[in-house]
Amino acid sequence: MKPRKLPLRKCVACQEMKPKKELIRVVRTPSEEIQIDLTGKKAGRGAYLCGNVSCFKLAKKSKALDRALKQSVSESIYDSLENEFIAVQDEFIEAKELKADEA
Ligand SMILES: [Zn+2]
Predict the structure, then answer these.
(1) Which of 12, 23, 29, 50 could form a disulfide with 55 if both were Cys (CB 3.0 to 4.6 A apart)?
(2) How far is the CA of 9 from the centre of ligand 1 (A)?
C-alpha cells in the first residue's frame, strides 16, 4: 500500500513545506486575537510555523506573522506568543510522538 499523501503547509518563517502535523498553527480569530491553535481547527486566518521555537524567533524577527495574518502584530503580542509557543512546544512534540506510536 502506498503511504497516504500528507497535506503540506508552508512555515511562514523558514518557508519550508512540511506535513501539517509537524507545524504549529497560529490563528487570528474573528475577534482579531492572535492565538496558538494546537488543534488546528480554530476559525480564522491561520499561519503555520515549524514546531520549534527557532522558527518562532525567526518569524518575530522578520515580522512573518504580520504578513501571514494580514494584521500588524505588536512586539508584546509576539512576546506573549513566544512564551506560549515555548510552553506548548513540549506538549506538541509529545503529542506528535504519541501519534507516531499509534501509526
Ligand atoms: Zn520553519
Answers:
(1) 50
(2) 10
CATH homologous superfamily of 8-102? YlxR-like (3.30.1230.10)
Domain positions in the chain are 8-102
Structure-block grid coordinates of residue 49: 510555523
CB 83 within 8 A of CB 57: no
48-61 per-position pLDDT tens digit = 999 999 999 999 99
Distances (CA, A) of 1 to 19, 47, 103: 19, 32, 14
Measured CA to CA, the distance from residue 9 to residue 22 in angstroms comes to 9
Distance 58 CA to ligand 1 centre (A): 8
Global pTM value: 0.85
Integer Rg of the chain from CA? 14
What is the maximum span of the chain, computed from C-alpha positions, in angstroms? 49
Do the Cβ atoms of 37 and 25 come closer than 8 Å?
yes
What one-letter code names the amino acid at 60?
Answer: K
